[in-house]
Amino acid sequence: MATKVVELVNNGVLSVEKKYGMSYEEFAKDHLFGDYPVVIGDACKEWTAKEKFTPEFFKSEYGNRKVEVQGQEYNLKDFIEIMEESTMDNPAPYPCKLQIDRDYPELIPDISPRFMYAKPDWCHNPMVEPLLGNADTYEIFLGSPGGQFPYVHYDYLGLHAFITQLYGVKEFTVIPPDQTPYVYPKENNSWVSEVPDIKNVDLEKYPLCANITPITFTVGPGETLFIPNGWWHTAKSLTVTISVALDSLNTSNWERFKMEVTTKVDNKTNAAVAKMVGAYLSVAGGVLRRTKNKVRQA
Ligand SMILES: O=C(O)CCC(=O)C(=O)O
Ligand SMILES: [Fe+2]
User: Fold this and answer.
1) Does residue 37's CB lie within 6 angstroms of at least one atom of ligand 1?
2) Cα–ligand 2 centroid distance for 206 (angstroms)
3) How many Å apart are CA 160 and CA 129, to the nearest integer?
4) Using CA atoms, how far apart are residues 294 and 296, in angstroms rounded to an integer?
5) Which of 7, 11, 191, 243 could form a disulfide with 141 if both were Cys (CB 3.0 to 4.6 A apart)?
6) Which of 187, 131, 156 has the alpha carbon at shortest distance from 256?
7) What are the tens digits of pLDDT across the range 209-261?
8) What is the pLDDT of residues 74-103, one digit of tens each?
9) What is the spatial distance between Cα 180 and Cα 194, in angstroms, rounded to a whole number?
10) What positions does the domain JmjC occupy (predicted)?
């Protein structure tokens, strides 16, 4: 798929801008369809979670909940205490993810309204939901100093990501989609890079990485990073962090979603079933485009 990368060059280096008061039209033109990330400074301005979501809140309200982090189970209170001891040199495991729709639905009012930039949202439409399988599209991430997302990747199934920082500061690194040939996508998981540390690459082992130009920047409380699908990314917390990640699917990424779902079915089942799924998605896409006002806008 051809990608249009709008280069925002700052002192000769690619950069990601921070914008306030952006109109939907500007977002759609420069970012959603323009295929370029942006930090939106005020997307979550109405969310009560900005004040409410603190480590103390999760410890006191949900301390006994079980969480699994990197294969190990903890009580949330114990895990947050480990996070509070975390240092850049000796980080706590990451990520600790809480699934909002399934396990914490009562928190949805605190992270509402869904900001206009993430609408319409077809992820929750009954024609689409069953196809998402175990792709989590609405999660809280808890992180701590030095906690690094385990791999460089682009998001599964063609979805766009909005990551809203509610507490603490996270450093993100993004790489444009046209640099895909240089990030060593894994053979069986082409959305995950083989390279362990994209900012300190062993160029003898991964010589093509000499061609990449990663963009690194921080996202702080109240700020939302939009990552268009296909952009490689990873993240590292600089402090204790609480973020909310939500995915979006609409006209802008529907063709990519369709392609990724049918390829997955083709690999797992067979070409005939993949063809049927593709036909179904073509019809569903037409219906969704015509009924966008009736779609649940969480
Ligand atoms: O905030 C982060 O750690 C990045 C999360 C992420 O990229 C993902 O879950 O796909
Ligand atoms: Fe991601």
Assistant:
1) no
2) 22
3) 15
4) 6
5) 243
6) 156
7) 999 999 999 999 999 999 999 999 999 999 999 999 999 999 999 999 998 88
8) 999 999 999 999 999 999 999 999 999 999
9) 12
10) 93-265
* The residue count for the chain: 298
Hey, what amino acid is at 219? Answer: V
CA gyration radius, the chain: 19
Would residue 154 be called left, alpha or beta, if left means φ above 0 and alpha means ψ between -120 and 50 degrees?
beta
- How many whole angstroms from its chain centre is CA 115? 15
Measured CA angle at 4 (ends 230, 207), to 5 deg: 60
Mutating to test ligand 1, I would choose from 159, 217, 234, 237 the residue with most ligand atoms within 8 A of its C-beta, which is: 234
- Burial tier of 18 (Cβ tally within 10 Å: 0-12, 13-18, 19+): middle
Position in ligand 1 atom list of the atom nearest CA 243: 1
Distance CA 297, CA 199 (A): 37
Q: Are 144 and 92 in contact (CB under 8 A)?
A: yes
Indicate the helix (H) or strand (E) that contains 50: helix 49-52
The domain locations on the chain are 9-123+135-248
Q: Are strands 18-19 and 38-40 parallel, antiparallel or unpaired?
A: parallel
The CATH architecture assigned to 9-123+135-248 reads: Sandwich (2.60)
Q: Which two tokens stand for residue 192?
A: 């995950």
Using the mean position of ligand 1's atoms as its centre, give its distance from the Cα of residue 85 in Å: 22
Rounded distance, CA 231 to CA 212, Å? 12
Crossing angle of the two packed helices 251-268 and 271-290, in degrees rounded to 10: 160
Q: What residues contact 11, with CB distance under 8 A and at least 6 apart?
A: none
